[in-house]
Amino acid sequence: xxxxxxxxxxxxxxxxxxxxxxxxxxxRYKYMRNRAWLAAHPEKAAEYSRRWRxxxxxxxxxxSRDAYRKKCIAxxxxxxxxxxxx
Length: 86
Description:
Number of domains: 2
Number of helices: 3
């Protein structure tokens, strides 16, 4: 019986190459591996990010606008809540 590398759960025997019991565990491992690479190679990660931002200025602008819009909506909702509670 094989054991999942992430959660320790049992893995079915449909394939010898399986290392994870579910797609959630596989996604969690991928996330952890990516974070470890970013921590080990901060200069490469910064370079990749810089090149992506230069190649996709319209997406960077959209992401910035969406974040600002979300922040403003939250602030307005908080002000209305305070106004209604007084």
